[in-house]
Design goal:
The protein has 427 residues and is of the alpha/beta class. It is built from 12 helices and 20 strands.
Length: 427
């Protein structure tokens, strides 16, 4: 009964959607286990190009059940729009299931997200403004509303009345904005419940059945390891854990059932929003990578910050996730570069260190120590066998794997499903 967690190993946008879409043809179940619609997974397959924010990337595989797990914060407006768009393009969404334990994003979450970010001023986090952080804060504060409550209008009414009174007090007395209407919010979420009712179910029994059938289960992460609120560049992080450990908590599958962890890395680094990024390139090379790869956020459209591969951060990511295999994406983006650099250490206050500092001020002072390798300067997008890659390209990815301390499973040389080189089977 193989269960494999697919984890973003950097600051997000590594290509998890493509990897899950590719693996889903072998999977019985795909579970999205964390985050919200602040995530954006781009999938390109024979059906076309799709941007998914909540629905698991396995939805295009006809035999695969797709679960939005309890660890996801769901905006019903976004989810219904996503369902409608997929249906309009001929994608069957009848295999979609929503955990009744998943928390809902409410209108006050979105409003408070923007108000709190404005209040931070120069210390703004750079959130997507979609209410994910406030929704997860309410989950921990026991002020959340879950998908299962949409199925009982009286329970929904009772909980919403209590919570909205509290939130309106904050909106009016702290932020000095108009309160939200209970009747409008209640009516809207009753309508959401009517539409989402066929999808909302208890999911742990479904997963237990799948485990006993010895079929592949994929746990699809959102965002990236270095945005984890415990181990990432706090406070410039996301609000739920993108780590492999969350795959268990956010799905309801026991941790001892997870048999493999696939870490997904770009062969360079990108980041959206504020926070330290030691290898960031602010010169023409960074611009070239950004434009060649079209490094703009799937969710926000914001330009991504680009930099060289950070092996110190990569090894740290492996340490806290326990990768059994890694996948490298976007190798083709480096096809034209004559020289490539890999960060193999940091210089901090005159000392050389080989670890990823927890202290944000220290990390901001870290200067990368680079190792330089030759580029290959020939196209790779057409290559499907590892030995057909240019020697310099093989040298580069093998050095990345060596520094990360994990064997390679896949190398992606383009955005489409077929543009993938299998180095070692994942199973």
């Amino acid at each position: 009964m193989p269960v494999i967690a697919v984890i973003g190993a950097q600051w997000g946008d590594e290509g998890k959607g493509k990897v899950v879409d590719m693996l889903a043809k072998k999977a019985r179940v795909v579970v999205r286990f964390s985050g919200g619609d602040n995530a954006g997974h781009t999938v390109i397959n024979p059906l076309g190009e799709f941007s998914l924010h909540l629905i698991p990337s396995g939805i295009f595989s006809s035999q695969t059940t797709c679960i939005i797990g309890n660890g996801v914060a769901i905006n019903p407006t976004v989810l219904l729009k996503e369902i409608d768009q997929l249906n309009q393009r001929g994608v069957d969404t009848s295999r979609l299931i929503i955990s009744d334990r998943a928390h809902l994003i409410m209108p006050y979450h979105i409003l408070l997200d923007s108000l709190e970010e404005k209040w931070r001023g120069g210390q703004a986090i750079g959130t997507t403004g979609r209410g994910i952080g406030p929704a997860f804060a309410d989950k921990v504060a026991r002020l959340g509303i879950r998908a299962g409550e949409l199925l009982d209008k009286e329970i929904l009414r009772k909980q919403l009345r209590f919570i909205l009174d509290y939130k309106n007090a904050i909106l009016t007395k702290v932020h000095e904005v108009n309160p939200l209407s209970f009747d409008e919010v209640y009516r809207q979420y009753c309508q959401y419940g009517e539409r989402l009712m066929p999808y909302i179910r208890e999911t742990t029994e479904i997963l237990e059945t799948a485990l006993h059938q010895d079929k592949l289960i994929l746990l699809e992460g959102a965002q990236g390891t270095l945005l984890d609120p415990d181990f990432g560049t706090y406070p410039y992080t996301t609000s739920s854990s993108p780590l492999a450990g969350e795959g268990s908590l956010g799905s309801g599958i026991s941790g001892n059932k997870i048999t493999g962890v696939l870490g997904v890395f770009k062969v360079y680094c990108t980041r959206v929003g504020s926070g330290p990024m030691p290898t960031e390139l602010t010169d023409g090379t960074g611009d070239l990578i950004r434009e060649t790869a079209h490094e703009y956020g799937t969710t926000t459209g914001r330009a991504r910050r680009c930099g060289w591969f950070d092996a110190i951060a990569a090894r740290f990511s492996n340490r806290i996730n326990g990768f059994t295999r890694i996948a490298f994406t976007r190798l083709d983006i480096l096809d034209t570069l004559p020289h490539l650099k890999i960060c193999v250490g940091y210089q901090l206050d005159g000392k050389v260190i080989d670890f990823f500092p927890a202290n944000i001020a220290a990390l901001e002072r870290c200067q990368p120590i680079y190792e330089e390798l030759p580029g290959w300067q020939v196209p790779t997008t057409h290559i499907r066998q590892y030995q057909q890659l240019p020697p310099q390209a093989r040298q580069y990815v093998e050095r990345l794997a060596e520094l990360t301390a994990c064997p390679i499973s896949f190398i992606c040389v383009g955005p489409e499903r077929e543009q993938t080189i299998e180095v070692r089977p994942i199973l």
